[in-house]
Automatic annotation (TrEMBL):
This is ATP-dependent helicase. The lineage of its organism: Bacteria, Pseudomonadati, Pseudomonadota, Gammaproteobacteria, Alteromonadales. Residues 193-352 form the Helicase C-terminal domain. InterPro entries: DEAD/DEAH_box_helicase_dom (IPR011545), Helicase_ATP-bd (IPR014001), Helicase_C-like (IPR001650), P-loop_NTPase (IPR027417). It holds the Pfam family Helicase_C. PROSITE patterns: HELICASE_ATP_BIND_1, HELICASE_CTER. Keywords: ATP-binding, Helicase, Hydrolase, Nucleotide-binding. Residues 13-166 form the Helicase ATP-binding domain. It comes from the Bacteria. It comes from Pseudoalteromonas aurantia 208.
Amino acid sequence: MHTLPIDKIKTDFLSTITHCDVIVSAATGSGKSTCLPIWASNIGKVLVIEPRRIACTSLAEYLALKSGQPLGSKIGYAIRFETHFNEQSDVVFVTPGVALRWFFEDKLSQFSVVMLDEFHERRWDIDLMLALLKQHKKHRLIITSATLNTKKLTDYLDAKLLHSDGIMYPVEEVFFTSNSNEMPSKDQLSERTVDACSYALKQTQGDILVFLPGKAEIQAAAAAAKKLNKLVVSLYGGCAKQQQELALKTQTEQRIIFSTNVAETSLTIPNISCVIDSGLERRTHLRAEKTVLALDTISKDSAKQRLGRAGRTQQGLCIRLYGEYAPLISSTPPEILRENLTELVLAASCSSHGIDSLEFIEALPLKSKQASVAILTSIGAIDLQGKATDLGKRLYPLPIDIELAYLINSMPNNSLKQAMIDIAALLTVPAKVYQLPRQQTLIESLNLQLPNACDLELAIGVVRGQVTDLIIECDALREAIQFSELLRSAFDLPELKYAASFNHSDLVEAIAYAKPNSVYIKRQNRRGAFGNGTIEVIPAKDSRISAQCHAMLVLNTYALAGKGTKQAMTLATLNAPFSTTLINKLNLGEHTLSHAELIDDIIMVNSIYSYSGVQISEKKLIPQGPALLNACCELILNDTLFSPIGQNIKNAIKYHILYNQANNIIEDLPLPDIYIYNKLESLGVNEQQDLELIEPADLAYHEIDSWVISPFIEKHPLIVQLNDLVMGVEYHFNAKRITLHYKLGKRKDLPKRWELPTWSGFSICYKKASKTVQVR
């Protein structure tokens, strides 16, 4: 009978699981994902949470086959849009999103055991699921991982650790680079990958597994590898079922399998004798409070996982497309430290007493948590105590981004709800659903069909099958249509084939009203960027937005990382033209008053209406109330009104400050404009005719008695004039020093001590430009 490395811990596992949570640390390929759920089903129904959809379905299919019963009977699974299980199923594999929604519905009451597989991937939804289960205390937990900080986890759960070494055959490492410190790079990746494949084919008879960062790189490398005349297989999230089967089942001919890191763990790919590691992956990051996907180098932990794929069943070879001493990070940071937490916070609010009631294995970053709480509070999804509102509970189960769900719910009528659903459906698909045509005739045809130069209108037309002159990704479109149908059902709206027509202008206005920060205005800079007051974006090349557009509505952005912050660029990919008139109508901008002036003895100010720092309109108006007082302050201080009282007030306050410094008095004194504002307010000025009742003397500054301040002023002038030389005076009372600053005059020789006021006990310096000399 064939045994697996995990079988060595079976007795310990069965004796432990009945009374204690278990953490199983076992090497990749040891059998933990297939054996542990079956063993645990002895004490009740088991829910297995798998981070990836491919692993979820393939593991369920494999165990169902071993059980001799059809899939969905004893063994089942549930992923988005697809379920195969029944009430009698002993083991059900699910993705984290499904598990969280089931927990929200009934706290997983049908299951006795919950197994969190591949926990080392540290997805935010797995971290949240563990925190919820720890708080709930109604399930026996199994946590598995190939690489894990087991002490941290055992302390967190007070669980027992079981370890299985597994079987690992020797794997030779070869580094395909001349520089031992060279980091992984995307430069000429396809060519370097195919060269490595050619080398590997000469070294091994087994199959070759190539790790690449994403679908685009896989497709490019797969096309270039056709000349090798081997079975080329592409494996990534969302790939065709046929490609999955070619990867997961032994074939009669030698294979080259191009895969994302979906093949690092969970999946058993037979007969792999060589791994080619690009050292790259696509990893999420937080930028401007939004999760973005960027190309990154892998961690040392991931490099070890990838190598392990070559040594499961035989001696292997691992070819690295980077240097042996490349400074990779030790481990990939958990998602909760590098992603937007809005969905996590809402899920916690729906399924517990709020985010702060949960204890996470890794503390949530305070700034990210607070930003997410602020967003959810602002849209009314959670209350001030952090609990989910009725709206939040309605939005949370929807399988889309919470802000998109909020936008759908905010649309004022059913036709606009349907339009927003179709936009959300397209945005939710990870892959690109369509590309604009390149032929000029097709572009002109598209412009005739959709004259608004609007990406939103185009997206809706694609989902509804109304636009055909495009390059369509059929699998991605099929998924978008599934999302649309699901959302329409959730909101009790007609099926997609009965989609209602909508008013384009009403849609744009309704979205802007619900989400004001989605409105961007063109900045006056060379980059042609648009801003919303928080971030700047540039319309993507494939956006239909016209170059003459002055403002736009943006519903999706894509961040391109640069070498520095200034070089980073955010592209707006799903946009609609937006009029500045609408900015005014929705009151999105702000009014500022500036430049007061007297016109025919009437005080006037400029009223500027701007959005995101860009001026939209300007007009003159007669100010009232606080605006009038501010205008008066400006005019008085520039000696246009009540001259010369403004200059007198400035001098009086300067001397008061100087007097306090001379006498070591600590006192907060008002700035001249604050003093004048308060004085006018106390005199009851609210309208312009009120100024007729005021004399300049009413505003004079008399905070120090004249008999005290007058001799001080005489003794401590702030300006000294010696014929053709004017100097400003700076006093340093504690240091007993005075500095004279040249202001104007043609005199070339230095001032003499006898020419100056009698400043007993002070040393005196004269400063002109950068030169300072002592006055004798």
